[in-house]
Design goal:
Largest sheet: 5 strands, mixed
Shape: globular
Oligomer: single chain
Distance between the termini: 83 Å
Number of strands: 15
Helix content: 40-55%
Number of helices: 14
Keywords: Coiled coil, Cytochrome c-type biogenesis, Disulfide bond, Redox-active center, Signal
Structural class: alpha+beta
Organism: Flavobacterium endoglycinae
CATH class of the largest domain: Alpha Beta
Pfam family, one: DUF4369
Protein name: AhpC/TSA family protein
Strand order of the largest sheet: 13-12-11-14-15
Strand content: 15-25%
Order of helices and strands: HEEEEEEEEHHHHHHHEEEHHEHEHHEEH
CATH architecture of the largest domain: 3-Layer(aba) Sandwich
Number of domains: 3
CATH superfamily of the largest domain: Glutaredoxin
Domain Thioredoxin: 250-394
Protein backbone atom coordinates (compact mmCIF):
# COMPACT_ATOMS: atom_id res chain seq x y z
CA UNK A 1 0.00 0.00 0.00
CA UNK A 2 2.86 2.35 0.93
CA UNK A 3 4.59 1.52 -2.37
CA UNK A 4 1.45 2.35 -4.38
CA UNK A 5 1.06 5.62 -2.48
CA UNK A 6 4.71 6.55 -3.13
CA UNK A 7 4.33 5.78 -6.84
CA UNK A 8 1.12 7.85 -6.99
CA UNK A 9 2.80 10.78 -5.25
CA UNK A 10 5.79 10.51 -7.62
CA UNK A 11 3.61 10.68 -10.73
CA UNK A 12 1.55 13.51 -9.22
CA UNK A 13 4.68 15.56 -8.53
CA UNK A 14 5.95 14.78 -12.06
CA UNK A 15 2.69 16.02 -13.58
CA UNK A 16 2.79 19.20 -11.49
CA UNK A 17 6.37 19.91 -12.63
CA UNK A 18 5.51 19.06 -16.23
CA UNK A 19 2.71 21.62 -16.17
CA UNK A 20 5.37 24.35 -15.86
CA UNK A 21 7.19 23.23 -19.01
CA UNK A 22 6.44 24.65 -22.41
CA UNK A 23 7.24 23.32 -25.86
CA UNK A 24 6.75 25.49 -28.93
CA UNK A 25 6.85 23.37 -32.09
CA UNK A 26 7.26 25.41 -35.27
CA UNK A 27 6.81 24.77 -38.98
CA UNK A 28 7.99 27.21 -41.66
CA UNK A 29 5.80 27.24 -44.74
CA UNK A 30 8.72 28.31 -46.95
CA UNK A 31 12.25 26.99 -47.17
CA UNK A 32 14.19 28.50 -44.25
CA UNK A 33 16.67 25.70 -43.56
CA UNK A 34 19.93 26.55 -41.74
CA UNK A 35 18.45 29.87 -40.59
CA UNK A 36 17.74 30.66 -36.96
CA UNK A 37 14.67 32.01 -35.20
CA UNK A 38 14.51 33.68 -31.79
CA UNK A 39 12.19 33.75 -28.78
CA UNK A 40 12.13 36.28 -25.93
CA UNK A 41 10.01 36.28 -22.77
CA UNK A 42 10.30 37.18 -19.10
CA UNK A 43 10.36 35.17 -15.89
CA UNK A 44 9.80 37.34 -12.80
CA UNK A 45 11.12 40.37 -14.65
CA UNK A 46 14.24 38.65 -16.01
CA UNK A 47 14.43 38.61 -19.81
CA UNK A 48 15.07 35.18 -21.36
CA UNK A 49 16.23 34.91 -24.98
CA UNK A 50 16.42 31.58 -26.82
CA UNK A 51 17.42 30.66 -30.36
CA UNK A 52 16.53 27.66 -32.48
CA UNK A 53 18.13 26.43 -35.70
CA UNK A 54 15.63 25.58 -38.43
CA UNK A 55 16.05 22.05 -39.82
CA UNK A 56 13.73 20.51 -42.44
CA UNK A 57 11.61 23.67 -42.10
CA UNK A 58 11.00 22.87 -38.43
CA UNK A 59 12.17 24.37 -35.15
CA UNK A 60 11.42 23.90 -31.46
CA UNK A 61 11.69 25.96 -28.27
CA UNK A 62 11.44 24.51 -24.77
CA UNK A 63 11.62 26.04 -21.31
CA UNK A 64 9.81 26.55 -18.02
CA UNK A 65 7.23 29.16 -17.10
CA UNK A 66 4.73 29.14 -14.24
CA UNK A 67 2.00 31.18 -15.95
CA UNK A 68 1.03 32.32 -19.45
CA UNK A 69 3.34 35.19 -20.37
CA UNK A 70 3.73 37.62 -23.23
CA UNK A 71 6.54 36.67 -25.61
CA UNK A 72 8.10 37.70 -28.92
CA UNK A 73 9.11 35.40 -31.74
CA UNK A 74 11.42 37.06 -34.26
CA UNK A 75 13.86 36.31 -37.09
CA UNK A 76 16.28 39.06 -36.03
CA UNK A 77 18.78 38.14 -33.27
CA UNK A 78 18.63 41.66 -31.77
CA UNK A 79 14.84 41.80 -32.07
CA UNK A 80 14.65 44.71 -34.50
CA UNK A 81 10.95 44.16 -35.00
CA UNK A 82 8.65 44.72 -37.99
CA UNK A 83 5.27 43.23 -38.90
CA UNK A 84 7.08 40.99 -41.38
CA UNK A 85 9.71 39.48 -39.08
CA UNK A 86 8.08 39.26 -35.65
CA UNK A 87 4.99 38.54 -33.61
CA UNK A 88 3.96 39.35 -30.05
CA UNK A 89 1.99 36.44 -28.59
CA UNK A 90 1.23 34.60 -25.35
CA UNK A 91 3.36 31.65 -24.36
CA UNK A 92 1.61 29.00 -22.22
CA UNK A 93 3.11 26.32 -19.94
CA UNK A 94 2.04 23.54 -22.34
CA UNK A 95 2.74 22.13 -25.79
CA UNK A 96 2.01 24.74 -28.48
CA UNK A 97 2.23 24.73 -32.27
CA UNK A 98 3.12 27.59 -34.58
CA UNK A 99 3.07 27.80 -38.37
CA UNK A 100 4.69 30.77 -40.10
CA UNK A 101 6.20 32.16 -43.26
CA UNK A 102 9.81 33.05 -42.37
CA UNK A 103 9.66 36.14 -44.61
CA UNK A 104 6.19 37.35 -43.61
CA UNK A 105 4.80 36.89 -40.11
CA UNK A 106 1.44 38.47 -41.04
CA UNK A 107 0.02 35.00 -41.67
CA UNK A 108 1.40 33.34 -38.52
CA UNK A 109 -0.92 30.84 -36.82
CA UNK A 110 -0.48 29.76 -33.18
CA UNK A 111 -2.40 26.84 -31.64
CA UNK A 112 -3.04 25.61 -28.07
CA UNK A 113 -2.72 28.92 -26.24
CA UNK A 114 -5.97 30.12 -24.70
CA UNK A 115 -4.35 33.40 -23.67
CA UNK A 116 -3.08 34.01 -27.19
CA UNK A 117 -6.50 33.26 -28.65
CA UNK A 118 -7.96 35.92 -26.35
CA UNK A 119 -5.19 38.35 -27.29
CA UNK A 120 -5.72 37.79 -31.03
CA UNK A 121 -9.48 38.18 -30.70
CA UNK A 122 -9.01 41.57 -29.05
CA UNK A 123 -6.61 42.71 -31.77
CA UNK A 124 -8.84 41.60 -34.62
CA UNK A 125 -12.41 42.70 -33.87
CA UNK A 126 -14.53 43.62 -36.89
CA UNK A 127 -14.69 47.24 -35.78
CA UNK A 128 -10.89 47.45 -35.50
CA UNK A 129 -10.43 45.79 -38.90
CA UNK A 130 -12.75 48.33 -40.54
CA UNK A 131 -10.90 51.20 -38.88
CA UNK A 132 -7.50 49.81 -39.89
CA UNK A 133 -8.68 49.51 -43.51
CA UNK A 134 -9.74 53.16 -43.47
CA UNK A 135 -6.39 54.19 -41.95
CA UNK A 136 -4.46 52.15 -44.55
CA UNK A 137 -6.48 53.63 -47.44
CA UNK A 138 -5.87 57.20 -46.22
CA UNK A 139 -2.16 56.54 -45.82
CA UNK A 140 -2.03 55.10 -49.33
CA UNK A 141 -3.87 58.14 -50.70
CA UNK A 142 -1.48 60.46 -48.85
CA UNK A 143 1.50 58.70 -50.43
CA UNK A 144 -0.12 59.14 -53.84
CA UNK A 145 -0.63 62.87 -53.28
CA UNK A 146 2.92 63.24 -51.96
CA UNK A 147 4.28 61.60 -55.14
CA UNK A 148 2.23 64.05 -57.22
CA UNK A 149 3.68 66.99 -55.27
CA UNK A 150 7.21 65.95 -56.27
CA UNK A 151 6.42 65.73 -59.98
CA UNK A 152 4.41 68.98 -60.23
CA UNK A 153 6.01 72.37 -60.91
CA UNK A 154 2.82 74.46 -60.95
CA UNK A 155 2.61 76.23 -57.56
CA UNK A 156 -1.17 76.64 -57.66
CA UNK A 157 -1.54 72.92 -58.30
CA UNK A 158 0.92 72.17 -55.49
CA UNK A 159 -1.17 74.31 -53.14
CA UNK A 160 -4.30 72.34 -54.04
CA UNK A 161 -2.48 69.05 -53.43
CA UNK A 162 -1.18 70.38 -50.09
CA UNK A 163 -4.73 71.24 -49.02
CA UNK A 164 -5.77 67.68 -49.86
CA UNK A 165 -2.84 66.33 -47.85
CA UNK A 166 -3.76 68.52 -44.87
CA UNK A 167 -7.33 67.26 -45.04
CA UNK A 168 -6.13 63.65 -45.16
CA UNK A 169 -3.83 64.26 -42.17
CA UNK A 170 -6.81 65.57 -40.21
CA UNK A 171 -8.89 62.51 -41.14
CA UNK A 172 -6.01 60.24 -40.19
CA UNK A 173 -5.64 61.89 -36.76
CA UNK A 174 -9.36 61.47 -36.14
CA UNK A 175 -9.27 57.79 -37.13
CA UNK A 176 -6.21 57.12 -34.95
CA UNK A 177 -7.97 58.77 -31.98
CA UNK A 178 -11.08 56.73 -32.75
CA UNK A 179 -8.96 53.58 -32.90
CA UNK A 180 -7.48 54.33 -29.47
CA UNK A 181 -10.99 54.74 -28.05
CA UNK A 182 -12.13 51.48 -29.68
CA UNK A 183 -9.12 49.64 -28.24
CA UNK A 184 -9.64 51.06 -24.78
CA UNK A 185 -13.33 50.27 -24.72
CA UNK A 186 -12.89 46.71 -25.95
CA UNK A 187 -10.05 46.13 -23.45
CA UNK A 188 -12.16 47.46 -20.57
CA UNK A 189 -15.07 45.24 -21.52
CA UNK A 190 -12.79 42.23 -21.83
CA UNK A 191 -11.19 42.81 -18.40
CA UNK A 192 -14.59 43.20 -16.73
CA UNK A 193 -15.88 39.96 -18.25
CA UNK A 194 -12.68 37.92 -17.92
CA UNK A 195 -11.10 38.30 -14.45
CA UNK A 196 -9.53 34.83 -14.91
CA UNK A 197 -7.64 35.81 -18.07
CA UNK A 198 -3.87 36.08 -17.87
CA UNK A 199 -3.82 38.85 -20.46
CA UNK A 200 -6.04 41.09 -18.27
CA UNK A 201 -3.21 42.46 -16.05
CA UNK A 202 -1.12 43.31 -19.13
CA UNK A 203 -4.06 45.22 -20.61
CA UNK A 204 -4.59 47.08 -17.34
CA UNK A 205 -0.86 47.82 -17.11
CA UNK A 206 -0.94 49.36 -20.60
CA UNK A 207 -3.95 51.52 -19.69
CA UNK A 208 -2.25 52.63 -16.47
CA UNK A 209 0.94 53.62 -18.30
CA UNK A 210 -1.02 55.76 -20.77
CA UNK A 211 -1.91 58.06 -17.86
CA UNK A 212 -5.27 58.93 -19.37
CA UNK A 213 -6.87 61.57 -17.16
CA UNK A 214 -10.33 60.28 -18.10
CA UNK A 215 -9.54 56.93 -16.47
CA UNK A 216 -9.11 57.29 -12.75
CA UNK A 217 -6.63 55.35 -10.66
CA UNK A 218 -9.55 54.00 -8.60
CA UNK A 219 -11.17 52.54 -11.75
CA UNK A 220 -7.99 50.65 -12.64
CA UNK A 221 -7.44 49.54 -9.03
CA UNK A 222 -11.02 48.21 -8.78
CA UNK A 223 -10.53 46.16 -11.95
CA UNK A 224 -7.27 44.79 -10.53
CA UNK A 225 -9.01 43.83 -7.28
CA UNK A 226 -11.50 41.73 -9.25
CA UNK A 227 -8.81 39.66 -10.96
CA UNK A 228 -8.62 36.04 -9.80
CA UNK A 229 -5.98 35.10 -7.18
CA UNK A 230 -4.19 32.92 -9.75
CA UNK A 231 -3.92 35.79 -12.24
CA UNK A 232 -2.61 38.10 -9.51
CA UNK A 233 0.17 35.56 -8.80
CA UNK A 234 1.40 35.72 -12.41
CA UNK A 235 4.30 37.95 -13.42
CA UNK A 236 1.88 40.29 -15.19
CA UNK A 237 -0.29 40.44 -12.06
CA UNK A 238 2.67 41.17 -9.79
CA UNK A 239 4.02 43.79 -12.19
CA UNK A 240 0.63 45.52 -12.29
CA UNK A 241 0.36 45.50 -8.46
CA UNK A 242 3.78 47.13 -8.19
CA UNK A 243 2.97 49.77 -10.82
CA UNK A 244 -0.32 50.57 -9.11
CA UNK A 245 1.63 51.43 -5.95
CA UNK A 246 4.10 53.57 -7.88
CA UNK A 247 1.30 55.22 -9.85
CA UNK A 248 -0.64 56.10 -6.72
CA UNK A 249 2.44 57.53 -5.03
CA UNK A 250 3.43 59.63 -8.07
CA UNK A 251 0.07 61.07 -9.10
CA UNK A 252 -1.11 64.62 -8.58
CA UNK A 253 -2.01 65.17 -4.93
CA UNK A 254 0.51 62.64 -3.56
CA UNK A 255 3.57 63.42 -1.49
CA UNK A 256 6.47 63.21 -3.96
CA UNK A 257 8.54 60.04 -3.34
CA UNK A 258 11.99 60.88 -2.02
CA UNK A 259 15.19 59.95 -3.84
CA UNK A 260 18.87 60.75 -3.39
CA UNK A 261 22.19 60.35 -5.13
CA UNK A 262 25.05 62.32 -6.64
CA UNK A 263 24.49 65.10 -9.15
CA UNK A 264 26.63 65.88 -12.21
CA UNK A 265 29.11 67.76 -9.97
CA UNK A 266 29.31 64.83 -7.54
CA UNK A 267 27.38 66.72 -4.86
CA UNK A 268 24.76 64.96 -2.73
CA UNK A 269 21.28 65.56 -4.11
CA UNK A 270 18.16 64.61 -2.13
CA UNK A 271 14.66 65.71 -3.06
CA UNK A 272 13.40 65.97 0.52
CA UNK A 273 16.11 68.57 1.30
CA UNK A 274 14.13 71.10 -0.77
CA UNK A 275 10.93 70.63 1.24
CA UNK A 276 9.57 73.76 2.96
CA UNK A 277 12.06 75.80 0.94
CA UNK A 278 11.84 75.23 -2.81
CA UNK A 279 9.29 74.42 -5.51
CA UNK A 280 10.87 71.67 -7.67
CA UNK A 281 10.32 70.84 -11.32
CA UNK A 282 11.50 67.31 -12.21
CA UNK A 283 12.45 67.04 -15.88
CA UNK A 284 12.90 63.47 -17.21
CA UNK A 285 14.96 63.58 -20.41
CA UNK A 286 17.88 62.14 -22.43
CA UNK A 287 20.46 63.66 -24.78
CA UNK A 288 19.12 61.60 -27.71
CA UNK A 289 15.53 62.80 -27.15
CA UNK A 290 14.79 65.64 -29.60
CA UNK A 291 11.61 66.95 -27.89
CA UNK A 292 13.45 66.90 -24.53
CA UNK A 293 16.23 69.14 -25.81
CA UNK A 294 13.78 71.41 -27.60
CA UNK A 295 12.33 72.18 -24.15
CA UNK A 296 15.63 73.55 -22.79
CA UNK A 297 15.08 77.16 -23.96
CA UNK A 298 11.73 77.13 -22.14
CA UNK A 299 13.31 75.63 -19.01
CA UNK A 300 16.04 78.28 -19.07
CA UNK A 301 13.41 80.99 -19.34
CA UNK A 302 11.33 79.84 -16.37
CA UNK A 303 14.41 78.98 -14.29
CA UNK A 304 15.93 82.46 -14.51
CA UNK A 305 12.50 84.02 -14.08
CA UNK A 306 11.61 82.14 -10.88
CA UNK A 307 14.86 80.83 -9.33
CA UNK A 308 15.16 83.77 -6.95
CA UNK A 309 11.57 83.21 -5.85
CA UNK A 310 12.28 79.60 -4.94
CA UNK A 311 12.18 77.43 -8.10
CA UNK A 312 14.62 74.54 -8.54
CA UNK A 313 14.86 72.30 -11.59
CA UNK A 314 16.20 68.75 -11.37
CA UNK A 315 16.82 67.23 -14.79
CA UNK A 316 16.80 63.44 -14.55
CA UNK A 317 18.63 61.75 -17.44
CA UNK A 318 18.19 58.20 -18.71
CA UNK A 319 21.38 58.45 -20.82
CA UNK A 320 23.47 55.28 -20.91
CA UNK A 321 26.54 57.16 -22.21
CA UNK A 322 27.56 59.43 -19.35
CA UNK A 323 30.10 61.42 -21.40
CA UNK A 324 27.37 62.29 -23.89
CA UNK A 325 25.09 63.32 -20.99
CA UNK A 326 27.74 65.64 -19.53
CA UNK A 327 28.66 67.12 -22.92
CA UNK A 328 25.01 67.81 -23.73
CA UNK A 329 24.56 69.72 -20.46
CA UNK A 330 27.48 71.97 -21.49
CA UNK A 331 26.42 72.25 -25.13
CA UNK A 332 22.89 73.30 -24.17
CA UNK A 333 24.24 75.66 -21.46
CA UNK A 334 21.96 74.24 -18.76
CA UNK A 335 24.57 73.80 -16.02
CA UNK A 336 22.83 76.25 -13.69
CA UNK A 337 20.28 73.79 -12.32
CA UNK A 338 20.59 70.27 -10.89
CA UNK A 339 21.35 67.22 -13.04
CA UNK A 340 20.85 63.61 -11.94
CA UNK A 341 21.90 60.49 -13.87
CA UNK A 342 19.78 57.35 -13.48
CA UNK A 343 22.65 55.15 -14.71
CA UNK A 344 25.37 56.73 -12.58
CA UNK A 345 23.25 56.51 -9.43
CA UNK A 346 21.78 53.08 -10.30
CA UNK A 347 18.47 54.70 -9.42
CA UNK A 348 14.94 53.32 -9.64
CA UNK A 349 13.51 56.84 -9.90
CA UNK A 350 11.69 56.11 -13.17
CA UNK A 351 9.86 53.21 -11.55
CA UNK A 352 9.14 55.24 -8.42
CA UNK A 353 7.61 58.03 -10.51
CA UNK A 354 5.97 55.62 -13.02
CA UNK A 355 7.84 57.19 -15.95
CA UNK A 356 7.79 54.97 -19.05
CA UNK A 357 8.57 57.53 -21.76
CA UNK A 358 10.17 60.94 -22.07
CA UNK A 359 9.91 63.88 -21.85
CA UNK A 360 7.98 63.93 -18.57
CA UNK A 361 7.79 66.90 -16.20
CA UNK A 362 6.52 66.78 -12.62
CA UNK A 363 5.94 69.90 -10.51
CA UNK A 364 6.34 69.62 -6.73
CA UNK A 365 5.26 72.43 -4.39
CA UNK A 366 7.18 73.63 -1.32
CA UNK A 367 5.28 71.19 0.90
CA UNK A 368 6.60 68.31 -1.21
CA UNK A 369 3.26 67.53 -2.90
CA UNK A 370 2.92 66.74 -6.60
CA UNK A 371 0.76 69.46 -8.16
CA UNK A 372 1.37 68.90 -11.87
CA UNK A 373 2.41 66.13 -14.25
CA UNK A 374 2.91 66.39 -18.02
CA UNK A 375 3.88 63.84 -20.67
CA UNK A 376 5.37 65.01 -23.97
CA UNK A 377 6.19 68.45 -25.27
CA UNK A 378 3.87 71.11 -26.70
CA UNK A 379 3.11 74.81 -26.48
CA UNK A 380 0.02 73.97 -24.42
CA UNK A 381 2.09 71.99 -21.89
CA UNK A 382 4.64 74.77 -21.55
CA UNK A 383 1.87 77.31 -21.01
CA UNK A 384 0.30 75.11 -18.31
CA UNK A 385 3.63 74.64 -16.52
CA UNK A 386 4.42 78.34 -16.47
CA UNK A 387 0.88 79.22 -15.39
CA UNK A 388 1.08 76.78 -12.48
CA UNK A 389 4.56 77.92 -11.41
CA UNK A 390 3.40 81.54 -11.58
CA UNK A 391 0.42 80.72 -9.39
CA UNK A 392 2.64 78.94 -6.86
CA UNK A 393 4.71 82.06 -6.30
CA UNK A 394 1.70 84.37 -6.27
CA UNK A 395 0.03 82.46 -3.43
Amino acid sequence: MKLKLSISLFFLSFIMVAQHNFMLNGICSKNANTKSIYLRYKINGKSITKSSRIHNNKFVFTGEIDFPTQAIICTHPKFYMTNLNSKIFYLEPCKMDVKLDFNDFNTIVIHNSKSNDEFDSLQNTMEKKKNHKKIDSIRELSRSYSDKMITRSDNSLKNQIQKSLDSLDLQLDQLVDQNIKINKQSEFEFIKKNPNSFIAPDLLYHILMQEDEQISYDTIKNLYNKLSPEVKKSYGGKQLAEKLIYSKNSRIGSLAPDFKGRDVNDNLLQLSSFRNNKCVLLDFWASWCGPCREDFPFLKEIYFKYKDKGLEIISVSRDEKLDLWRNTIKTESVEKWKHFSIKENKSAIEDIYAVTGIPVKILIDKDGNIIGRWIGSSLEIKAEIESMISKVFQD
